[in-house]
Amino acid sequence: MENNRVGMAKKEEVASALKGGSLTRISHKKSTAMPNLPMDEMIIETAKNNDINELRPLLLELISSIEDASEFNVETALENCKQIIQHPNSYIYIARMSKKVVGFINFTIRKTILHKAPSGLIDEIVVAKTHHKQGIGKKLIAAAIEKCTKLGCCEVEVSTEITNKGAISFYKNCGFRGGSVLLEYDID
Length: 188
Description:
By secondary structure, the chain is α+β, with helices and mostly antiparallel strands.
């Protein structure tokens, strides 16, 4: 993705407690357009290897938001980020303000059996607590949807804890709609 100069939008909060248990899966079909809103300077770009360490504070925020985070650690998360950016069907986009990383989104593109076109799946989205309610999460979602659209995806999905009403509301405000349930089975 080329550097995409975008700005801050309508105030929204991103809640991203993604852990085991019953999750709600929400799909976004291509038909919903993101609104054009007043903007301040922000850049959304594809993460590179030299950006990985700048994700550390955001990953710590993500881990601290998980009720039982004992199985997660930031070093593993950073290593996973390095692997994800090397994978051809996986993407990490970062949001920068004043040259500082203030948010990121991680998503993958995959083929399913029933759809003619691929599907996008948002795995994580995090915005620094200091930058909540500034529209950064909404712009990260828009960038992911734009990429999925360019790659010919028929939908974009996201999941969150069924009890995470703030995240569900946020995703619905971004044009996602409910309709599925994703259940997890923890192997380790």
